[in-house]
Amino acid sequence: MMTGKERILKTLNREPVDRPPWLPFVGCHGGYLLQKRADEYLKSADLLVEGLRVARERYQPDGLPVMFDLQVEAEVLGCDLNWAAEVPPAVISHPLTSGSLAELPKLDPDAGRIPVVLDALDRVKGEMGDEVALYGLLCGPFTLALHLRGNEIFLDMFDDEDHVKAIIDFAAERAMEMAAYYLDHGADVIAVVDPMTSQISPEHFGNFVAPALNKVFKMIRDRGHFSSLFVCGDVTRNLEPMCATAADNISVDEQIDMVTLSKLAKAHQKSIGGNLKLTAVLLLGTPEDAQREAVGIMDQCAGAPLILAPGCDLPYATPPENLEAVAAVVQDEYQREIVRTTKQAAKIDDYTDVQVPDYDDAPAVILDVITLDSTSCAPCQYMLEAVERAARATPVRTYINEHKIKVRAGLGMMQKLGVKNLPTICIEGEPVFASIIPDQRTLVAAIEERARAKGLA
Fold first, then answer.
1. Contacts 24+ apart (CB under 8 A), 91-98
2. What CA–CA distance (Å, rounded) separates 270 from 274?
3. Per the confidence metrics, is the pTM higher than 0.70?
4. Minimal CA–CA distance to 158: which of 417, 439, 436, 456?
5. Is the separation of the CB atoms in 170 and 192 below 8 Å?
6. Rounded to whole angstroms, how far apart are CA atoms 379 and 206?
7. 422 dihedral zone (left: phi>0; alpha: psi -120 to 50; beta)
8. What is the pLDDT of residues 242-279, one digit of tens each?
9. Which of 28, 99, 197, 382 counts the highest number of beta carbons within 10 A?
10. Residue-range domains of the chain with CATH
């Protein structure tokens, strides 16, 4: 019988397997399993190991990430973090807004929380490493560049290309160092998680990001291991450039059409991963919803080298029974056939009780930002920051509302405003910037144009 580790590695190599492997991205959710806060869990090797033990027992995974926290490298390099009880930390300062690359600290394996994750990896490798594929997740070059430089990088991409390339190249070097630490301690797969690439154009991806990513992927391949490019967010416009990179696997979230990805990945000889819905299904749905979702994805990708996984880091309070239900249906063809036979449309929620603002009568321009959660999703965080900065830069009076789809009211606002992609900026109830962060001049101009239309300016 094939082990989970063998199943993952064969799929990454596009070899036949008995069934799609199952990879629950247990990050801060491990803390929930132990009834510990996220900020406790992500700072403790003991808790990480115990959380992975419980996740393995309950979810029967083929692979597991050692830790899911894209701020580990940023913290060592001088970014301040804001910690919370139910989400990974958020970056709240950017050292390259006032300093230079030469002034940044080294990414030393003994610095910050790097020893914590490497200690946890050493221990779980000894306990389950023969049967479970262990993933080392690191912050991708563009997202790390955003952490270091902040939203200014979007203007820099037009005004100072060389500086941006220098920052991203620096970030790629740090990614290679982090990958080496993971590999030295026994990681089987390196996932380069770069969610901010969902916020740029294919031209910018090709010019700034792809060369940096390929350096990282080549280094991993030279070490004899597999790599994954994992992007949360609506990366539809960059799917083909992503598939053209040197990664072995392309993993995406729920906003991506898996049939399209399967075709692109096949043309570029890639395996794929994804893309169970995080909130509407895994967090807020039932076990039956989770099973229907899992079987639907497996059927859409039939014949493709698929690793079934959530679209990003599991929400902290994801009901374990939903993930156990996915594990059961992944491992049992009979259960999958039952799901197909009894499949019925999920209950349609019309959200009649969710009220949208009265845009016409409001004495201000109302900005609705639809997010997964700006405290845990980097594209959401930087989009909300861009809105707040633009609001401060204009004399127009504004109201800013964040609507997190991790709760039902946020899902209702998303539906009522006709938002299809995350994150999205709506101005006066109209989706204007979908899954792309505008520069400050563009966003200020859009706000002031709406103000004039309302007679406020």
1. 91/147, 91/381, 94/147, 94/148, 94/149, 94/150, 94/152, 95/148, 96/148, 96/149, 96/150, 96/167, 97/149, 97/150, 97/152
2. 13
3. yes
4. 439
5. no
6. 19
7. beta
8. 999 999 999 999 999 999 999 999 999 999 999 999 99
9. 28
10. 4-342 (3.20.20.210), 365-453 (3.40.30.10)
